[in-house]
Amino acid sequence: MAAALQSVNIDEYDNPLDHLEKLKAANRRLESFAQIASHDLRSPLRAMMSIAEWVREDIETTFGKVPEQINSDLLELQEQGLRMGKLLQDLLHYSQVGFAGNAPHAFEARSVIQDCVDICAVPEGMHVRVGQEMPNVACSPVEFGLVVRNLISNAVKYHDRSDGEIAIDGWSEGGQAWFRVRDDGPGIAPELAEEVFGMFRTLDSRRGNGIGLGLVRRITDEYGGSSKVLPNPGGRGSDFVVSLPLAAGADDRNAQGGSATGTSRPEDGADDTKGASR
């Protein structure tokens, strides 16, 4: 069950079970509200974006050409609509963490990671390498996929060059499954390492809405794991390191030569570039 809306002391109530049921009901209403709001607000957004296109077509039909400034304004309107749609979808995902329907179970992490790479909009010039061996995880595959996609998306969005490399590897240690997403972008200042995981915190509002890493933090916290960012020891870039419950029966082993600090490199030749270049 997701966290309650506020902290309470159930000892203050005559019947703590009744209060617990009320909290469950409140969380169900919250989930329902998020789903309805997300759906109902996205519908007029789609209409708004369509109207912008109709205005462009009408001007072109009537005057033969859309003035450059008007065309720029209409494109900006559509771009902001896309950003709002993404914001609503991210808020919906954030509200659903820990709810029924995302039941945790053991699964192979690598196949989910590869699926995430395949569906992420990785531009040409960016290459994503996925380690051959990954630990098995015990959590919701849907929520694990959200963690991976947001970390990949973050590495791409905030890269300062048209070409770059993102490496994903994992290992098991201390009863936890560890994953590292390493990029060779501009990196993150040490004093911002914790702030970037806050809700609506972004280093560049033009590139993101500040929910992605907040969602990563909420999901890892929900499972008693962790999330952090460290400097890439090889120079440029950052290491985003997360931990989640290790599947029962899995051995603690160093699958990619990593460590819980996420600062060591995987062994040479351990990465697979199949389907990773865009």
Automatic annotation (TrEMBL):
Residues in coiled coil: none
Histidine kinase domain location: 36-248
Keyword Phosphoprotein included in the entry's annotation: yes
Reactions it catalyzes: ATP + protein L-histidine = ADP + protein N-phospho-L-histidine
Gene3D superfamilies recorded: 1.10.287.130, Histidine kinase-like ATPase, C-terminal domain
InterPro entries the record matches: HATPase_C_sf, HATPase_dom, His_kinase_dom, HisK_dim/P_dom, HisK_dim/P_sf, Sensor_HK_Regulatory, Sig_transdc_His_kin-like_C
Name assigned to this protein: histidine kinase
Source lineage: Bacteria, Pseudomonadati, Pseudomonadota, Alphaproteobacteria, Rhodobacterales
